[in-house]
Amino acid sequence: MKKTNNNLTSFADHLDEQYGKAGTNAREAYEEGFEAFKLGVMIQGLRKEQGLTQEQLAEKCGTTKTYISRIENNASDIRLSTLMRIVREGLGGHLRLSVGI
C-alpha cells in the first residue's frame, strides 16, 4: 500500500486493499453498492429540499412509503421505470443517465 509522507493512505489505495483492484469481483460489487447508496442519498436530498415526507413522495409517484424508505436506505434494488416515475412525477425532475466505459 502506498503511503504519503504523512503516513496517510489514499482513498484509492484503501479501496484496493479492502476490495481488490478495479475489475475484480469484490471491487465491482463494492462499486455497484456504492452507486445504489448514492442514488438513495440523492433521492432523499431532493425529497427533503422540496419539503416532502416519504409518504408524500410515495403518493405523488404511486408507490409506498416503505418502498421510498428502502430506496433511500439502500435496502432495495430499483427498476429504471420506477426511478423515472419517482424523479418525474414525485420530484418534478428529469432523469439523465450516462455510461462510463
Question: What does this protein look like?
Answer:
This protein has 101 residues and is an all-alpha fold. The protein has one domain: 434 Repressor (Amino-terminal Domain). The chain is 60% helix and 0% strand. It has five helices and no strands. The protein has helices at 11-19, 25-49, 54-61, 65-72, 80-90. α3 packs across α4 (65-72) and α3 (54-61) crosses α5. It is elongated and about 50 Å long. The protein starts with 10 loop residues before the first helix and ends in an 11-residue tail after the last helix. The mean pLDDT is 89. It comes from Pedobacter changchengzhani. One of its GO terms (cellular component) is cytosol. Keywords: DNA-binding. It holds the Pfam family HTH_3.
Provide the helix percentage. 55-70%
Low-confidence stretches: none
Structural classification? mainly alpha
Please write the CATH class name. Mainly Alpha
Question: What's the CATH superfamily, by name?
Answer: lambda repressor-like DNA-binding domains
Keywords:
101 residues; XRE family transcriptional regulator; elongated; mainly alpha; single chain; 5 helices; DNA binding; 434 Repressor (Amino-terminal Domain)
Task: Provide a concise account of the structure shown.
This protein is an all-alpha fold and 101 residues long.
Topology record:
Layout: H1 11-19, H2 25-49, H3 54-61, H4 65-72, H5 80-90
Helix pairs in contact: 3-4, 3-5
